[in-house]
Amino acid sequence: MRLFNVKYFCLLTFFIITSCQFEEKQDLIDKDMMVQILIDMHLAEESIEQLKYEKDTLEALFSRKEMEILNKYNISEELYRRSYSYYRSEEHTSELQ
Questions:
Q1: Are 71 and 64 in contact (CB under 8 A)?
Q2: Are 83 and 29 a contacting pair, CB within 8 Å?
Q3: How many CB atoms lie within 10 A of CB 58?
Q4: Concatenated DSSP letters for 21-85?
Q5: Which of 37, 34, 35 shows the shortest CA–CA distance to 83?
Q6: At a CB cut-off of 8 Å and minimum separation 6, what does 92 contact?
Q7: Nearest to 64 by CA among 85, 88, 87, 41
Q8: Quick check: 66 and 44 in contact, CB under 8 A?
Q9: 36, 37, 54, 67: which has the highest count of C-beta atoms within 10 A?
Q10: pTM score
Q11: What is the pLDDT of residues 19-31, one digit of tens each?
């Protein structure tokens, strides 16, 4: 019984390690479009920060502007968040430069 547990543990560990190494770039925004989206987001954020409103109002304005930008590029918020997380990770940061 104990040998079975050790074999099971080793097999499970092997699958976890190999699955982490083969990360796929499926369903991501291509890097050129991501750069354009990030530029638009940054410009929107800067223009909204210049307004003299309460913080919660500014956050609501940015949220609305963010959705406008995503609609402009015809992408979902989920796809944007997933791509943002991917490109922001250390091993992929250089891809946007």
A1: no
A2: yes
A3: 16
A4: H----TT---HHHHHHHHHHHHHHHHHHHTS-S-HHHHHHHHHHHHHHHHHHTT--HHHHHHHHH
A5: 34
A6: 86
A7: 41
A8: yes
A9: 37
A10: 0.67
A11: 554 455 568 999 8
